[in-house]
Amino acid sequence: MSDPRTVDREVLELTEDLRRGTIDPERMARLNRLLDRDVALRQLYVEYNDQLASLAPEVEENEVIATLGSRGQAASRRASSRWVSGAVAAAVLAVVCSVGVALRFGGVAMSPPVGKVAVVADGTVWASEPAAGGDAFGVGAGFAVESGFVSLDLGRDVRLDLVGPAQMRVDGPDRVWLSSGLVAGTVGPDGRGFMVRTEDADVVDLGTEFVVHKNYTVGTRVDVRSGRVEARLKDESGRTVKIVELLADQRGRFDHVSVTADGFVGGLEDLLARYTGVSRARGGVLRYADGAVPLAEPDRVTDLRTGMAPTAGRVFVIPERRGVELAEALTVPSPDGPVTLPAGTRIDSYLFHFDVGDGLQLSHVGRGAVTFGGAVAAVLTSADALAATDDDFGLPAATFDPVPHRGLESETDTVAVTADHRSVTFDLDAEVLRVLDQFRVLVIDGS
Amino acid sequence: MTLCVATHQEADDVMQEVCLVLWRKFDEYEPGTNFVAWGRAIAFRVAREHARRTRRHRGIGLDDRVLAKLAAVHQGVGELLELRQELLQDCVAKLPQGDRDLIRRSYGGEESVVEIAKESRRPLASLYTRLKRLRGRLFDCVNRGLGRAEGRR
After folding, report:
1. Residue A43, phi then psi, degrees to nearest 5
2. Is pLDDT at B115 greater than 50 in this prediction?
3. How many other C-beta atoms are found inside a 10 Å radius of the C-beta of residue A1?
4. What end-to-end distance do the CA atoms of chain B give, in Å?
5. Tens digit of each residue's pLDDT (9 = 90 or more) over A153-165
6. Residues 46-105, chain B, touching A (beta carbon < 8 A)
7. pLDDT at A317
8. A201-205 and A158-172: which strand pairing?
9. Which of left, alpha, beta for A187 (phi over 0: left; psi -120 to 50: alpha)?
10. b/e code A290-319 from CB counts within 10 Å (16+ = b)
11. Which pairs count as long-range contacts for A206-210, CB under 8 Å and 24+ apart, including other chains?
């Protein structure tokens, strides 16, 4: 019979190997057998694992559930009603989960700000504490999104779009940690060297636009839209074992478990579809301000008739068509007089949609501003101008309201284009009997 | 949960998932019943699913039957684990300053062992070995504090 101490040591060795990912199938089978047959060894394994977890500062399940339990039970004892105890437990669950998440994925500024939340798409569902456009965040802040997307501006010309479901933590002004999900990065010249890290690879931007997708079953996938990135494959210990440079339109897959880096991978359709969705939602818009918001899934909003897509006091900015090439010159009305766009011009169109729904208030105000990547060529504000351009520039699947009040009312609504022709500001006032305001902005593609 | 995951990063991710599932399933919680047991059961199921995925992906992991047995043990030794954690703090405090620093840096979450090795110009393998020995010494120290002498059971 084996000396119990020898077997104990063996279990501890095997446990170490399992946690480091260096265990082989034969030794794994041995560990399973030992733990299966001997309760004392199982206790040894539990105690040793608990110690390893205790050495690290992360919030562990024990802590969360225990806190949940103690508060929930105490609340239950105090509460005489089953409903109340359930409600209290739910509240405790919310608090504990948000605290547990906040420690690693806080969504709050924990140190001097290194960036701001630029956009939270309408319809975004948070898994961590919600953030709003304009919120500052510091190192240690985290963002967990169940669905929708969030755009973050980090200093030095770095824009990140986090697409749910995804979890990301800001580890510094020049780096983030992506636990899972998809992040799309746009990095200007000042942001070179910005890094998106996952457990599989460190993706170093060299001035570009790229997408990183971390998934447990396939590892980390990197898709370079333009420019150049350097991806550093890591092994289980976090050591860099291979460096791969990816250029525009190149893709790579990295896996720290098998320690492999593939230069080309198929099956990226799902990733690209998700990215395309966000790209569409973002459109050619550089910045939203105040009450102007993009939609998380613009393609789902197809019925744009009065009362069908209420905007709850904000103004939805719906990217419609991109790169529509004019076959012939087009003259459109605009607040500053008729505008003629020459044949061959490529146009991106955006519908601004403000619908107060069934509100009982006397009036509703929507104010905001949007900055585009191209020059604003025309702003169409009348119901006639909108109807005349729906076929060419509207979403093909959209249903529009052929009512006169669809356009803006000159006495109560104002829209202005800034002197540089890059931004549109608006101040809309919808009355109860005129519950819908829309206008269309035509932007010269690539200008 | 730590029974089913290998790394702290995985633990983070599973913890996130646990919170989401607890949210989604909260309607199923029956007020007045044991909230802790309910939460733990869900956490264990989430972690077990994670372990299954990892097992499928890597071809390596603990069997479901073993995980269930480990969960039963874990449930029964909650107070002992709390006591062990208190003793662990004392044991860490008794380590020489250099070892304490190494533990703090390695488990502090801000530096990887690779980075520490680079900075201290020590071979990576020797650092791993050092850390492994320290973990063993701490485990022995806690066991002695429990009156288990040299034995670990």
Report:
1. -65, -40
2. yes
3. 4
4. 22
5. 887 788 888 888 8
6. 47, 53-54, 56-63, 65-66, 69-70, 73-74, 77-78, 80-81, 84-85, 88, 103
7. 86
8. unpaired
9. beta
10. bbbbbbbbbeebeebebeebbbeebbbbbb
11. A206/A230, A208/A248, A209/A184, A209/A185, A210/A184, A210/A185, A210/A246
| Percentage of the residues of chain A whose pLDDT score is greater than 70 | 74
Q: What Cα–Cα distance (Å) separates residue A295 from each residue in A213, A237, A283, A381?
A: 22, 41, 11, 21
d(C-alpha A248, C-alpha A227), whole Å:
5
Residue B73: its chain A contacts at CB < 8 A? 39, 42-43, 46
Give pLDDT tens digits for B59-80: 778 888 888 888 788 777 777 8
Quick one: which H or E segment has residue A370?
Answer: strand A363-372
> Look-up: residue for tokens 């779009």?
A161
For chain B, what's the residue count?
A: 153
Q: What is the DSSP string of A6-52?
A: HHHHHHHHHHHHHHHT---HHHHHHHHHHHHH-HHHHHHHHHHHHHH
- CA dist A316 to A237, A369, A396, B136, B143, Å? 46, 11, 18, 59, 63
Q: Which two tokens stand for residue A316?
A: 């939805």
Considering CB atoms only, which of B2, B9, B58 is closest to A257? B58
pTM score of the predicted model: 0.49
* ipTM beyond cut 0.85: no
Cα separation values, A443 from A142, A295, A349, A383, B6, Å: 35, 19, 6, 19, 52
**HSE value, Cβ hemisphere, 13 Å, CA-based, for A6:** 3
Q: Is there a contact between B118 and A83 (Cβ–Cβ < 8 Å)?
A: no
Contacting B residues, span 24-43, partner chain A, CB-CB under 8 Å: 26, 29, 31-32, 34-36, 39-40, 43
A38 in contact with B, Cβ within 8 Å: no
Peptide bond into A165 cis (omega under 30): yes
Instruction: Enter the tokens of residue A442.
Output: 């035509």
Who's near A148: CB < 8 A, 6+ residues apart?
Answer: A120, A121, A122, A123, A124, A125, A164, A296, A297
Dump strand ranges (E) for A40-135: 113-120, 125-126
Query: Could you report the per-residue pLDDT of B23-35, keeping only the tens digit for each?
Result: 666 666 666 666 6
In chain A, which residue's Cα lies nearest the Cα of B51? A216
Q: Does B3 touch chain A (CB under 8 A)?
A: yes
Distance CA B119, CA A10 (A): 33
Structure letter (DSSP) for residue B131: H
Residues 123-142 of A with CB under 8 A from B: 127
* Mutation target vs A (from B35, B42, B139; most A CBs, 10 A cutoff): B35
Count helices and strands (H / E) in chain A: 7, 27
| Residue B69: C-alpha distances to residues A14, A409, B14 (Å) | 18, 71, 20
Helix (H) or strand (E) holding A76: helix A61-78
Q: What distance in Å separates the CA atoms of residue B99 and residue B136, rounded to the nearest whole number?
A: 13
Alpha-carbon span A317 to A369, nearest angstrom: 10
Give me the amino acid identity at A183: V
Give φ, ψ of A123 to 5 degrees.
95, 0
